[in-house]
Prior knowledge:
The protein is an alpha+beta fold. Helices cover 36% and strands 29% of the residues. The protein has helices spanning 18-48, 54-84, 155-179, 243-257, 274-284; strands spanning 10-16, 88-93, 96-101, 104-109, 113-118, 121-125, 128-133, 135-140, 145-149, 184-187, 190-193, 196-199, 202-205, 209-214, 217-223, 229-236. It has a four-stranded antiparallel β-sheet, with helices on one face. A hairpin with a 2-residue loop joins strand 6 (121-125) and strand 7. It is elongated. The protein starts with 9 loop residues before the first strand and ends in a 30-residue tail after the last helix.
Amino acid sequence: MPSMFDPPKLLFRAEVYRRRYSRRLFRLLLGVGAAAAAYWALAYAARTGVAVDGLLLDIGRLVAVVLAGYLAVLFGLNLYRTLTRRNERIQVFDKGLTWRKHKSLAKFGWSAIDTFREGASGIYIGNRPLLAWGKHVIFLEDGNRYAFSHRQGDTRRFASAVRPYIARVTGARMGQTLREEEPVQIAKGLVLYPGGIEARNKEIPWSQLSVRVRNRRLQIRQHGGDNVFKTVATFPISKVDNLGGFMELTAQVIENYQPERRKRSTQQRAVTPPESQSTARRTTEMPLSEPKRATGTQQAATKRDTGTQRRATR
Length: 314
């Protein structure tokens, strides 16, 4: 685990400058003017009867019109961005983030983050987005909110940089809340209890639970016998708070309640930095007590370290 005296390591950086768009305006304007001049020259040649194939003149004028229209659209987009966007610089370090907007600078560590919601998505060709939408949102414990979208940079790289560290913090926080016999709601219709979870009004104990992410949807599955898991509920990951922390927590707790699955990879787990794996394991390796609200028709009580015994009833 990095020491507080070690210099921070830069993991990701994204920058947005208005000047970048304003510089493009002049070049695009020149392009529109050149395309318009080419069209005028070809039209003049057609009127004066220059010894050139008429079909070639028509094709040339069509290309000039299409090119001028395309450059005019780009000019409009860059003009809009020049007028609406502000200088911004986001840096992700192994100890936290710095977020500069115009002249204001915010610095915060991972422990200051309350919620991370992964809402950005898109269609990619290689590493280049063909179509992008949504945004990742970070909510701090002091109420401040920071959003990262494709306008600021690569949303996939940003999420990959911050997810492991936020998962470590939020997973430990959720585990502590469950040990205090309190529920944790991470999405509408999805609540964690000390003895299991409730998904779409369906109660599933840890001993029968499996979770995974497929096609940007969180799948909640229940053991149905014959070693077969049946999907009982799905949630878009853009609607799930602290998905990485949830996956980190459930991976450890399920291993405690289902030791036969420790050597099998039947769920998708969030990736954590090497230095955080031991911390996450220590946080969640203690079996959680049964919830105050039963997760089955009637669950057998679990023994606690003090030797006391509780029984959860519906």
